[in-house]
Amino acid sequence: MPLLLCVLFLVNADLRVQTISPRLGVINRSILLLRQNFQALVLLLVGQFRVGSDSGVVLCLEAALVGRDLGVESFDGLLSSEHLLKLGGATVWDGSRCFRIRASSVGGSHRQSGSDGERNDRLHDVEPLGDPAPDAIDFKDSASQVLDCTHAPVAQLDRASGFEPEGREFESLRARHFPARVARSGRRMGRFIRRQIALLWLGLASLGLASSPVVATAAERILHRVGTDDPATVDPHKVSLPGEQLIVLDLFMGLTTPGMNGRPMPGSAESWTVSPDGKTYTFKLRPNTRWSDGRPLTATDWVWSFQRMLDPKTAFPLASRLFPIKHARAVATGAMPIERLAVRAVGNDTLVIELENPTPYFTDVIMSSAMPAPRHAIEKHGTAWLRPGNFVGNGAFVLKDWRPNAHVELVRNPNFWGASRVRLDGVFHYPLGNPATLVRRFDAGELDLILVVPPERTAELRQRHGESLRLGRGIANEVVVFNVKRGPTADVRVRRALAMLIEREVIARNIIGFPGVQAYSYVPPGVLNYSSAAVPDFAKWPEARRVAEARKLLTAAGYDAGKPLSLRLAFPSTDLNRKVAVAIGAMWSRAGVKVELQSKETKALFADVGVGNFDSTRSVWLAAASDPHAYLERLLSTGSAVGVNTSGYANPAFDALLAEASAEVDIEQRAAKLREAEALALADMPVAPVYYLVGRRLVSKRVQGFGDNPRGLYPSWLMTVTPR
User: Fold this and answer.
1) 299 and 183, same domain (yes or no)
2) Which residue, 52, 359, 646, 704, has fewest beta-carbon neighbours within 10 Å?
3) Are residues 362 and 239 in the same domain?
4) Same domain for 130 and 259?
5) DSSP code of 88?
6) Phi-psi label, residue 700: left if phi above 0, alpha if psi -120 to 50, beta otherwise
7) Of 193, 219, 245, which marks where a domain is finished?
8) Which of 82, 77, 73 shows the shortest CA–CA distance to 37?
9) How far apart are CA 658 and CA 180, in angstroms?
10) Is the pTM of this model over 0.85?
11) Which structural domain, as residue segments, surrounds residue 371?
12) Which residues, other chains included, contact 365 with Cβ-Cβ below 8 Å and sequence gap of 6+?
């Protein structure tokens, strides 16, 4: 039968209680850190929070010790000391602002089940009681979303900390208020709380919950990292977003894999050889490479995986990156059956891949774009193979929990070939949310690695965190993609005019805060095998000439003061993207262009662009390899068939030049062909380069093994953290 535990904590606001056990502890005065491997859940410790200048609230929480059917295994950082939760009412205070949460924000189910899960969000039914305006608060990510816990069930306390009971109810959870005078007992309260903690710990020990063999999770090495996107999938043959790829790198491992320097090193293959003509790669698989369920991973599994990647039915968004493989393009476009793909197994431990042409960057491509998929798990579970419990991978970690818009939790894979080299016990991947909230969580020690830091906070964070802030220029290109198939941007004169009107130097200096990263080329500086990139004819023109020429082009296209050009500019809904979009819109307006700015969630924007529902959109070009071809291939007409060429650009002359470059063995001659192709595309301007990516990372001093690299690839298995 469930046991009921009632704990009364009268905590003075200035009291700091340190960790009291390896399993149960209070940190930063009011945050509960509790993890379990036993079939019970203990809830919870809450301190006093100030309501005014001299009043306080003391809470008593009752929680049942319940069985395994509750299904919740960890609570981390339920409340922060800067937030007050008035449990008896429905008011939340974040230190300076007060919010009322209406009754409809509480109760009901909150169900999630991986990628097929359903959500019932009740977090937007909030109204402010005073300044600032509601749009100053991001209710999706802020800890000020703490809900009224007076009545069960509690759907969610703090989404950022991952407390979501998946629709299960806390029938015994309730809160009481005590008079504020009780909370003013000063030092007596400190002695009282210490006695209560000691009694609690003794009580837990008497229940058999405090014995050391049960849990030692407080000493676990768990990496908490923030990427860029909330994943739509972790299927390695369905991913397309950068944040999804970062998670996939932890769950799967290609034949080659990125080192912390961003360059390929042996992965599932322990070695490989290349034929003298550069067209045949022979990979020797590691003898101990297995799937996470213990089943051997053979060369035959790799053959099936490559066929699945390039099968038109799979619609792998990154399939074009594998077009160097012989017959890959024909297979991906349906012109050949998948069995014609030039990937074959020689025994169980040898894989042979033939290429169409010499491809010096092939091992670079496959380290992030060619992961295996478990045929046996997919055939058994269908699309449900991605759910925790069904999941099978071959990477350093396996999927334990996946909660959309909250986190993806991974645990160490004991069957990983390099398990002895993995020092982390697990990884939490969080989606990029409100930057201010993320920085606060980093300051509180809840996050170890933030891969995207707002540029406007660079100076402040450098002063506060010093060497924890890492800056570096990447080899990615921030661009504006035009729809060349429909709408006003189908006219090349309109595209060229819009590209001319963008003042890249102003954006680089005033918004990005990194002068010198303005982009006029598709291929960023620093890319291997390319000494210099092509630039458009207007790159050196003064501003006045650009504006005048843009007006002429728009007039020739049929637009003037009586009939101004109107178009949409879509962008991912982050603060930086909004600032850049606003600036570009203002620059376009100098020529009389009327711009409708459309802020969209990444997945929604990706879906709209995929079906051509856009005029222009902000995007980032992340290449599959450090090679000019990896950037320019995004404009191949065949790329439209696999979702990479989102502009819909199709120029046979451009395609032919890339084909000639691919067949060229001499590196300099190859580069010359690629430069000619780049100049041709810049004249057509299906995509307008804006600036080269600047990486800003916050890396906790707890993290060891991290190394910045221009590729932005940071495999978790190469890092570790000091235990919390």
Assistant:
1) no
2) 52
3) yes
4) no
5) T
6) beta
7) 219
8) 73
9) 75
10) no
11) 226-430+700-721
12) 321, 322, 324, 359, 624, 625, 630
Closest CA to 348 of 416, 286, 408: 286
590 with 705, same domain? Answer: no
Number of domains in the chain: 3
Distance CA 215, CA 424 (A): 17
Q: What are phi and psi of 229, to 5 degrees?
A: -140, 150
DSSP one-letter string for 4-46: EEEEE----TT------SSSEEEETTTEEEEE-SSS-------
CATH number at residue 709: 3.90.76.10
625's torsion region: left (phi>0), alpha (psi -120 to 50) or beta? Answer: beta
Distant-in-sequence, close-in-space partners of 605: CB < 8 Å, separation ≥ 6: 570, 571, 572, 617
Whether 405 maps to a domain, the answer reads: yes
Give yes or no for residue 98 having a pLDDT over 50: no
Domain boundary among 167, 193, 219: 219
Q: Return d(Cα 31, Cα 11) in angstroms, integer.
A: 12
The single residue listed with the structure tokens 């509480």 is 106
User: Which residue carries 């932890």 as its tokens?
Assistant: 250
Same domain? 140 vs 287: no
Secondary structure letter of residue 341 according to DSSP: S
Residues 6+ apart with CB under 8 A from 32: 25, 26, 44, 45, 46, 75, 77, 78, 79
172 and 289 part of one domain: no
Which pair of structure tokens corresponds to residue 15? 């009291």
Domain for residue 462, yes or no? no
Instruction: Give the residue from 579, 638, 645, 652 showing the smallest Cα distance to 612.
Output: 645
**Distance, CA of 100 to chain centre:** 31
pLDDT in tens, 483-493: 999 999 999 99
Residue 464 lies in a domain: no
What CATH number did the domain enclosing 632 receive? 3.10.105.10
CA nearest to 697, candidates 140, 143, 260, 79: 260
User: What is the rounded distance in angstroms from the CA atom of residue 208 to the CA atom of residue 309?
Assistant: 51
Residue 92 corresponds to which tokens in the numbers above?
A: 């939340």
Contact 681, 632 (CB under 8 A): yes
Residue 169 pLDDT exceeds 50: no
What was the pLDDT predicted at 643? 58
Q: How confident is the model at residue 453, as a pLDDT?
A: 84
pLDDT digits (tens, 9 = 90+) for 278-306: 899 999 999 999 999 999 999 999 999 99
- Residues 179-207: what's their mean pLDDT? 39
Q: Are residues 250 and 167 in the same domain?
A: no
Report residue 639's pLDDT band, with 50, 70 and 90 as the boundaries. Answer: low
